[in-house]
Specification:
Blueprint lengths: L2 H33 L10 H14 L7 H16 L1 H12 L12 H27 L20 H30 L21 H4 L7 H28 L4 H14 L17 E2 L2 E2 L24 H9 L5 H5 L11 H20 L2 H5 L2 H6 L6 H7 L2 E4 L19 E4 H5 L6 H5 L6 H14 L7 H12 L22 E2 L12 E4 L1 H6 L1 H16 L4 E3 L9 H5 L3 H17 L4 E4 L2 H10 L8 E4 H10 L13 H6 L7 E4 L13 H8 L5 E2 L29 H11 L4 E4 L2 H16 L8 E4 H12 L24
Parallel strand pairs: 3-4, 5-7, 6-7, 6-8, 8-9, 10-11, 10-12, 12-13
Antiparallel strand pairs: 1-2
Helix pairs in contact: 1-8, 3-5, 4-8, 5-6, 6-8, 9-10, 10-12, 12-15, 21-30, 25-27, 28-29
């Protein structure tokens, strides 16, 4: 061995030993940190989970929403694994420059794969670097500041990872060129035979190798040793860096993402939306009938970072800071402090800062954090994290400094309370996340603690909770008024227990919902659906005053006790009357009854009204007819000769949470003479109306209004009608439209209507009737009896 080889080998092997030792230590620390979280069983259906992992990993299913990024990332990702063998080969080249791995080193298929992924990995990382710069917060193309999805990301870490990959791929390609030249020279044998230096073995680097053929054999061998050493040092310097930075998600996600995807909520790969997870204590689902038996220090929800489950801690550590969640978040896009990315990054940094203290011995902890830091037992970063009085509270956040809402090292609070209560639980963050982080569950768990343990929640929710406790509806109106919507209908609406004994006598239970029974705008939808079902000959019945609020808003506001009370009451009633098939008009009722009532023993087939009505139209049981004067050509082409241009807003709890996208659109498409205009943000990327997560009952005091943002987008399509499929959306978009009209930004004839109302108008025309009449009923007065305190 030459002196150069000796030095290179000693340095590289020494750095490698240090890197491996540090990496093992950090991996063990990861495992210990995750074990600090609460237990949760995510190990079922391992076969299905494995298939989901390979499908998401190789198919890049989540990444595909940004096709160019997805393609570049896929090649970069795959090259990381495939090119690992070139690292092993580089160690051999330190000792023998013409070294090749046994068996596969000169196998042409291996060489083809190596060169292909070296080039595509290089191109991929250059593309990703360019995209990051284009969308940098400082860049005009990146829309400046907080509008960039990279706003708040840790840039030095991203740059370091990108440059590492760039350096490694350049070294691999350079080595291949040098290997070609060395073989062309005859290698160490001194012969001049070309040997394997041909296109079969160097299909994509032979041209590069020809640039080096003028050099001597000694020069080529020394160059190979140097480049191999550089490649090894770049690789293991990266390993040392990430080992010393366990919160470096942009690097660690390439390992942790496999586990996070494997342990996602649904083994079949469904997005972790729909139902919220129940409260667990010690890993077991809390039985609310035995809540008095709990220990006094039992956490209901999450009040400290260690109250999260181990999967939650894994979630936070896996975040790669890509900002896809942030770019889709309705709160962030209307200048509120909530960024799902910054929230997760803060929880990650806080968890790993606090972990050394939590993992310290009882003896160390008995001496206090200050002494532990002074003695060097725990790092100084742990002191602020341990000293943080609250996980959620006042951080000193100012609206001009959104990053001020996040303070992973305390001392007063880690996350500002405005972050927590800005969330609409729309699920855009979860749906977009390429590594399956479950942001909504984390937010609701923290709300539960604030609500159930600290009784600290926005003042507006007090009225909501009181009304739900007293009268089982958010408006606080008397249950006897639940059937007022059916007054003056030209047919009988059957009630269970009054007109039918149980639901075996009808096909469907029509779940009216609180909004459908009490809110004037929603009553129009209720009446329309009832009339359409009657026209189609569908036998249905309602519960009348036997209905209570499903508890959606209470649960998402964190009041799990109130949700359990309402939900158990409803499940008992539904089971008692023999409910099997239920149709609902509210997306929130749809999600709760379909996905959350099974947690309490309520198993039903639940349909949204757009699904059922679409089926009835397809079966020719409902026949929509064109407006008078509609031409045959317009009917055939779908053009609106009468100017009926329609856009549709996807309710979050119907679309993202439950995947119902096609039925409402098919129903609109079945209406003669309607021109459909899709909004830019639609289906999976639809923008929230602002009512979810109990935000319906809270004022937007920060930033701009979410419903205003969405209404502007709908109006930009030029639509005459904004079609919806949820009463919450109808209220929010109607308010947004009214505000736009007052500001002169909308035509007076534009209106917000439920899809059912549009269908009823078309069906009535076939029956010789007119357009459905507006229902201008006075809002009933609340029951004058004093409400109990929450």
């Amino acid at each position: 061995m030459s002196p150069l080889q000796i030095v290179a080998a000693v340095v590289c092997l020494g750095v490698t030993a240090v890197a491996v030792a540090l990496l093992v230590k950090t991996v063990n620390r990861f495992l210990a940190t995750f074990r600090l979280g609460q237990p949760e069983d995510r190990g079922d259906a391992k076969g299905a989970r494995t298939r989901t992992l390979f499908r998401e990993f190789l198919g890049h299913t989540r990444m595909s929403r940004l096709p160019v990024v997805a393609a570049a990332h896929w090649f970069t990702m795959v090259s990381f694994g495939v090119l690992f063998f070139t690292l092993l080969n580089a160690f051999g080249q330190l000792f023998k420059p013409d070294f090749a791995l046994p068996l596969i080193g000169h196998f042409f298929l291996y060489e083809w794969v190596t060169e292909f992924f070296a080039w595509t990995g290089l191109i991929g990382i250059v593309v990703l670097m360019a995209i990051r710069q284009k969308n940098h917060p400082r860049s005009a193309a990146g829309e400046h500041g907080r509008r960039s999805r990279f706003f708040g990301s840790t840039f030095w870490q991203a740059y370091y990872v990108e440059l590492t990959i760039l350096g490694v791929t350049l070294c691999i390609l350079t080595l291949r060129g040098l290997e070609y030249a060395l073989e062309f020279k005859g290698g160490t044998t001194g012969t001049t035979a070309v040997g394997d230096a041909n296109a079969l073995h160097y299909p994509l680097t032979g041209w590069l190798g020809k640039l080096f053929t003028g050099a001597s054999v000694d020069t080529l061998e020394n160059a190979i040793v140097v480049v191999a050493a550089v490649k090894i040092l770049i690789s293991f310097a990266w390993m040392i860096t990430i080992a010393l930075n366990p919160t470096m998600g942009v690097a660690w996600h390439r390992f942790l993402a496999f586990f996070n995807i494997f342990f996602k909520r649904h083994a079949d790969g469904r997005t972790s939306l729909g139902e919220l997870q129940p409260i667990r204590v010690g890993g077991e689902v809390l039985d609310f009938e035995k809540v008095e038996d709990l220990d006094e220090d039992a956490a209901l929800g999450v009040g400290k970072v260690e109250d999260f489950t181990w999967k939650g801690l894994l979630d936070f550590t896996t975040c790669t800071e890509c900002g896809r969640c942030q770019s889709q978040c309705p709160a962030w896009n209307t200048d509120k402090p909530l960024s799902p990315k910054l929230l997760v990054m803060t929880l990650r940094d806080h968890a790993h800062a606090k972990a050394p203290w939590l993992l310290a011995s009882e003896e160390v902890r008995s001496g206090g954090i200050e002494k532990a830091v002074e003695d060097g037992v725990v790092p100084a970063s742990a002191q602020g994290a341990v000293g943080a009085e609250q996980l959620v509270g006042e951080t000193g956040y100012d609206i001009t400094n959104p990053l001020g809402a996040y303070n992973p090292h305390g001392p007063d609070a880690v996350i500002d309370e405005d972050v927590l209560w800005s969330c609409t639980t729309c699920g855009a963050c979860v749906e977009q996340c390429p590594v399956d982080i479950e942001h909504v569950d984390a937010i609701v768990d923290m709300r539960r603690y604030k609500n159930l343990i600290e009784s600290a929640f926005p003042a507006e929710l007090n009225n909501l909770f009181k009304n739900l406790e007293k009268n089982s509806n958010p408006w606080g109106l008397a249950p006897r008024l639940r059937m007022d919507w059916a007054k003056d209908l030209p047919f009988e609406v059957k009630q269970v227990g009054q007109d039918v004994e149980d639901l075996s006598e009808v096909e469907y239970l029509f779940w009216v919902g609180c909004a459908g029974a009490y809110e004037d705008r929603a009553k129009k939808t209720t009446r329309a659906v009832a009339e359409l079902l009657h026209t189609a000959g569908v036998e249905f019945a309602v519960l009348g005053d036997g209905e209570a609020c499903t508890g959606d808003s209470a649960r998402r506001a964190g009041n799990e006790f109130l949700f359990q009370m309402l939900a158990q009451q409803n499940v008992e009633v539904l089971n008692e009357v023999g409910a099997t098939k239920i149709v609902v008009t509210c997306a929130h009722c749809f999600n709760t009854i379909k996905n959350e009532y099974p947690q309490l023993g309520g198993q039903y087939e639940v349909l949204h009204h757009t699904q059922l009505l679409n089926r009835l139209v397809r079966e020719k049981r409902l026949t929509p007819v064109a407006r008078p004067g509609e031409t045959e050509e317009a009917q055939q082409t779908g053009a609106a000769s009468t100017g009926a241009k329609v856009t549709y807003h996807d309710p979050c709890y119907l679309g993202r949470h439950n995947g119902v996208y096609a039925p409402p659109r098919e129903l609109i498409g079945a209406l003669p003479g309607v021109e459909y205009a899709e909004m830019p943000r639609s289906r999976e990327t639809s923008f929230c109306c602002g009512a979810g997560g109990a935000r319906m009952w809270m004022e937007e005091k920060l930033g701009t209004r979410i419903n205003g943002n969405r209404t502007e987008e709908a109006l930009a399509t030029g639509a005459d009608r904004i079609a919806i499929g949820c009463p919450f959306c109808k209220v929010m978009l109607s308010d947004g439209l009214n505000a736009a009209k007052q500001d002169g930004n909308a035509r007076e004839e534009v209106e917000v209507v439920d899809v059912a109302q549009m269908l009823l108008a078309a069906v009535r025309r076939g029956d010789g009737g007119g357009e459905p009449e507006a229902i201008e009923e006075p809002q009933p007065e609340p029951d004058p009896e004093p409400a109990p305190t929450a």
